[in-house]
Specification:
Blueprint lengths: L4 H12 L12 E2 L12 H12 L17 H14 L3 E5 L2 H11 L6 E5 L4 H9 L3 E5 L4 H13 L6 E6 L11 H10 L3 E5 L24 E6 L9 E5 L1 H10 L1 H4 L6 H16 L1 H22 L8 E7 L1 H13 L2 E2 L1 E3 L9 E6 L6 H19 L1
Parallel strand pairs: 1-10, 3-4, 3-5, 5-6, 6-7
Antiparallel strand pairs: 2-8, 7-8, 9-12, 11-12
Length: 379
């Protein structure tokens, strides 16, 4: 008897469709990570780790924050993060997925509406499934569509709080949200804007504070800054009104029942924030490298319209996408293929990520090789 025949059949089906996933070791030039500022392996964080250990910062928390797991480093980080990002308070959690799940399963009530961008992250969807609020989508970056959805909901006699969920920089399309227009929308309708700054933190905004930073002091703005991308560590900071942060501390199951993040990790996030504040050259270098990559994509592939360090090269079908990714990996470039359900069906792509780990000459060489490999694939 085969206990897991159903699972075996499902895996075989994934293989036949070119959607089977395996864990691949790091190899070649970095065009796949979210380490946009090159901090993850930097001397900045290596020194910070040694200094933290020398002053007795523990590696493990030993319990949840509401028990004995609440270390001084957690408190210092949250105080400094609130000051850095310009909000009343902040809350440190183990990761962005956990934080998004906590936000949307806890803050919107049963009488509320969560109105979300159609391309919002999977963690937001999971949070909404766990929550009690009604949920509706609007077309990607369509502020007018969002406003129409608000008017339609209100016309049905609904009187609850409206929460609008967006990313400031979308992780698979690399495009930017119209944050100013969205802020005007929530102001006009007494709504709350929840902005996931995961891929913008460190790269966009004043000293890498994100695209929503000009509105950080607003009570009707809640932001999420993940710490494992531009900041080079791990974890996530939820930043906003003290009432919302206190509600999460008291009611978010993903916070209450989880072992606290490592105090050492909190110390490293503090060091990364200090690097953003004290060394603006790192952000400038990332922006310059991004501009260089955009020019190379136009010159070698005829592709334009990129807005960020995330550059999607849409191929379409799953198997050709993965074949192209393998071809580039064989040439020494760590580029990964992205398939459904991560992206919509028929839009499988290479997700090219530009980081300070890879210098400009290598970026130029990669785009030349990508153009050749792409051409060979279609012949």
């Amino acid at each position: 008897m085969t206990f897991f025949a159903r699972q075996d059949r499902a895996l075989t089906a994934l293989q036949s469709r070119g959607r089977y996933r395996t864990l691949i070791a790091r190899a070649g030039h970095d065009f796949a990570s979210n380490d946009y500022l090159g901090l993850a392996g930097s001397e900045v964080l290596n020194i910070a780790a040694r200094e933290a250990l020398e002053r007795g910062v523990p590696v493990g928390a030993g319990g949840s924050r509401l028990l004995r797991g609440n270390a001084d480093e957690h408190v210092l980080l949250e105080q400094e993060a609130a000051a850095f990002f310009g909000t009343q308070a902040s809350l440190f959690m183990g990761g962005g997925f956990q934080a998004n799940t906590a936000i949307f399963s806890t803050l919107p009530g049963a009488e509320d509406l969560v109105l979300y961008d159609a391309l919002i992250h999977a963690s937001t969807h999971d949070g909404m499934r766990l929550g009690r609020a009604e949920t509706r989508a609007f077309a990607h970056n369509d502020v007018n569509g969002a406003e129409e959805a608000i008017r339609n909901w209100r016309s049905e006699g609904k009187t609850g709080q409206i929460w609008i969920a967006v990313e400031s920089l979308y992780s698979m399309d690399g495009d930017l949200a119209p944050v100013a227009d969205l802020m005007a929308l929530v102001d006009a309708h007494d709504a709350v804007l929840v902005v996931d700054e995961a891929h913008a933190t460190g790269v966009f905004g004043d000293n890498g504070r994100g695209l929503s930073h000009p509105y950080a002091a607003r009570e009707n703005l809640l932001t999420l800054h993940t710490c494992g991308k531009g900041l080079g560590v791990s974890g996530a900071l939820i930043c906003g009104a003290k009432t919302l942060i206190d509600t999460l501390i008291n009611k978010a199951r993903g916070f209450i029942f989880a072992t606290a993040p490592s105090p050492l990790n909190a110390a490293l996030v503090r060091a990364a924030m200090n690097e953003l504040r004290d060394n603006p050259d790192r952000q400038v270098a990332a922006q310059d490298l991004m501009d260089h990559a955009h020019k190379e994509a136009w010159e070698h592939l005829g592709l334009a319209g990129f807005q960020s360090q995330i550059m999607p090269i849409v191929i379409g079908a799953d198997k050709p996408t993965m074949a192209l990714a393998q071809s580039l990996q064989d040439r020494g470039y760590d580029i990964r293929g992205i398939r459904p359900p991560t992206v919509p069906r028929g839009t499988s792509r290479l997700r090219v990520s530009i980081t300070l780990n890879t210098p400009a000459p290598v970026i130029s060489e990669m785009f030349r090789d990508l153009a050749q490999a792409k051409k060979a694939l279609t012949q």
